[in-house]
Amino acid sequence: MAEENNHGNKQLDEALDCLNTTFKHKDFKTPLQRDAVLAVLKGKKDVYISMPTGSGKSLCYQLPAVMAKGKITIVVSPLIALIKDQMEHLERLKVRAESINSKMAASDRQRVWTDLQAVVPATRLLYITPEQADTTSFQNLLERLVRHSKVAYMVVDEAHCVSQWGHDFRPTYLKLGGLRRTYRQLPWVALTATASAKVMEDIFKQLSLKDPLKFRASCFRSNLFYDVRYKESLDDEYEDLKDWVVECLGPNWEDKRANGPCGIVYCRTREATEELAGQLTRRGVPTRAYHAGLKDRDRAAVQESWMDGEVPVITATVSFGMGVDKATVRFVGHWSMPQSVAGYYQESGRAGRDGLPAQCRIYYSKRVERLIGGYFRDIARKQDYRTKAMTISSLDEDQYEGGRRGRQRELDMYEETGERRSDERSGLESLVKRQLKLRRGSSPVRSDRQKKQESKEKEQAVKSSRLRAADCTERKIAGLTLKTREEYFKLLEEALSRNLNACVVAAHALAGRVPEVAIELEYNIFTSNRVVTMYRRAMALLGGHSSAERRSVADLCVQLLMPHYKAGKIASKDEFKTLARSLAHSYLQRHTTVGALEQPDLSATTPHLAGGST
């Protein structure tokens, strides 16, 4: 026991010395971090580490890797961007770290391979992606390294990606379990910032970790401050976001510097990132959008401009997450509800990594969530019908002749009268009829009084509706309700009003015309679709900017302005064209990338303005 204590004390002294000389820290951040490092150094058991962002997870394997002289620590990381950040950090500390990935030049790859096959490699940490780990060339390399006892540890960073219950599941991570079973003599280390008990157990199972030592810290971070804003209660949600962003960035935020204050706003869709970037930029806060729809070089350029401080704010989908390690993030906003609690913790945890106060805010819209919820309820209802149909089918013993019970039933029925068989048949028919009624959306348990009340409410809703063909809603598109149309109409009307307000030149000419424009646009989509999901999609994508849509917007603007032109409220043809182009351009600008915009072509929609009288 005394010998073990002496060895442990010696190991701790060596770890503290390495921490001071290599990583420039006088002591460990927390006792938990110290204990995790010592557990990895012993190398006797697999180790699982779950610590919040900014708590020093990476040091738990980097310090043991530096202390393992003459050996290599292999780190599996999900993103090349994350690998790049880790390598740059280690390079500043003068720790030799290399990577093998698909983005490398052939000469760099050969240089790394040559060093790895040396008798004493200079490389301390080798970073790879899970896709690289699955290649034959890497597995052959790993086999040689293990055979010559050159591997100190196998590390899986962002280990929640291995779990199907995690918020960033990556199928290629599942292949790592095969490597673990092949090289059982190697100690493995799994790290994550967020993992529920269910995810943790799944990580152990998928990676085949054998009775790992667990080091888990609370996810609470005292420097992060959370709040929620309801969009419906705001006069201008974009202006409110801009004010919050400026407040979070603090004074002198316009000074472009790499270590300056910055922030992230997460959006649900690519289109939303583009729109929000445009809104903030036009309000004086330079912002760029980041999403999977951009080309690789464009995404890299956006991220670098944000990391270097050229733009203080980035709007992004959840694809912008892992690989982001900037200490001066002063805020993280969510323009819509996050996909999960674990995902929200991970994303909001990008803020305040320097330990200073940072803000985290969700902009919540009841109306949008209700629409999305309605869409998924429709799907769930259809799935429920299918499930019930399958249950009925499985209970039918006529399938496969019912096995032994089926044969016994045949013998019993042979001696019975036809009365019982008739009762069974009628019971089954009754059950099937009830299920068919459910498919058609009607409930067999509703009373006549309830039906009359519902019918009366529908009639009143139709009478009070501003929508065209309101009474034909359910007949025209199965599954679509008038209430759903009204919800989409309100969103459309609000969007048109914002567009009009943004177009100062044309606002006076179109005052009061927004409702009829919204009614016309909604009716066009309603009449051109037969399936409820297509209707929803068309309404959601109304703000697109294809060439056909540009012509449609330009044509609509001409129709709106024509009565004012004929009434003499618009002085000349040139002013007419200017107003129409300005209005169309303003509308399209809200739904396209910030930068040069393609002007709508009015020549095809206004041939009568080319010359002569109107």
Describe the structure.
Helix content is 51%, strand content 11%. The longest helix has 30 residues, at 366-395. Strands 3-4-2-5-6-1-7 form a seven-stranded parallel beta sheet, sandwiched between helices. It has a six-stranded parallel beta sheet with strand order 8-13-12-9-11-10, with helices on both faces. The protein has three domains: 2-216, Rossmann fold, CATH 3.40.50.300; 224-364, Rossmann fold (3-Layer(aba) Sandwich); 471-609, no CATH class. It is built from 24 helices and 13 strands. Residues 83-110 form a coiled coil. It is found in: Nucleus. Residues 38-213 form the Helicase ATP-binding domain. GO terms for molecular function: 3'-5' DNA helicase activity; ATP binding; DNA binding; four-way junction helicase activity; hydrolase activity; metal ion binding.
Descriptive terms for the model:
614 residues; alpha/beta; Rossmann fold; 3 domains; seven-stranded parallel sheet; six-stranded parallel sheet; 24 helices; disordered C terminus
